Task: structure prediction
Amino acid sequence: MKLNVVQPGKTFNCNQCGKCCSHIRGMMPQQDKEFMEKMAYGKLPLVQLTPLEKISFPLFDWEASRFKKWQREVNIDGKIKPSRTILDLNTNKAIIVTYFIDSDACPFLLEKKCVLYQTKRAYICRLFPFNRGPFLKTGSEPNKNNMFETCDGIKTLIPLIPEDYDSMVRFLSKAFPDSSFENSVQFDYITGWNNKTVIDLIKKKMIRPAMNYPYEFFLKRFENAEKIDFTDFLVESGYIDDKEKLIKKFDDNEDAKKIIENFLEQSLN
Ligand code: SF4
Ligand code: SF4
Result:
């Protein structure tokens, strides 16, 4: 099979315009919005705490902990608040799975530059210009027209991306030297891992999520409940024994590397 070799110079080049960090609310495909409106406000174990129009970048709980530390170091209020939680009726604890930055522009963007750029930042910062990777299973097939956000840097690359799925993935695996492609695959993997873990905890009766409560009542109970981050809960409940090891595996994109490698091997056979 013919390999897709990306021509020199035909790789993604971020011009550091800062646009992706200056409007961080509401970046969500219409289909996802409709699903969330219907399901995310009490019908599922994971409940959204903010109205749809206020939602911005999601931060995994362990990413939010880092941001809270970094914001003190740079003396900026990152406006980091919980965004999705499980109210566990077994322990009466609110288990916070994701946080968000409650701002129109990211508070860490100063004069078009990210003051946290030298840190690991968050996946959502590092996967741009992607809004999803090609392995995410949703209602819509991933293609070169629905995987990217508006970004000047990607405009010239889009016409070069093949239409055919296998060729497209091979192209993407070579065209993003900034690792944004790998980060998008890892971000989708962690999101899926979180969801699967919640289901597994329910099956094992390790949590009993409050569901179908009147939403205002749910919010009141959330306010009054003791709060715990998801990964801390996993350690406390004995579901995992080494949080730092898990985070390192995520940070190193170990899962994304395997997924991409397997795909490339299989698509050549
Ligand atoms: S990723 Fe795109 S929108 Fe963001 S700074 Fe780079 S060129 Fe600008
Ligand atoms: S932390 Fe930095 S990269 Fe992430 S959204 Fe804010 S300014 Fe952009």
The chain has one domain: 19-268. Residues 1-5 have pLDDT under 50 and may be disordered.
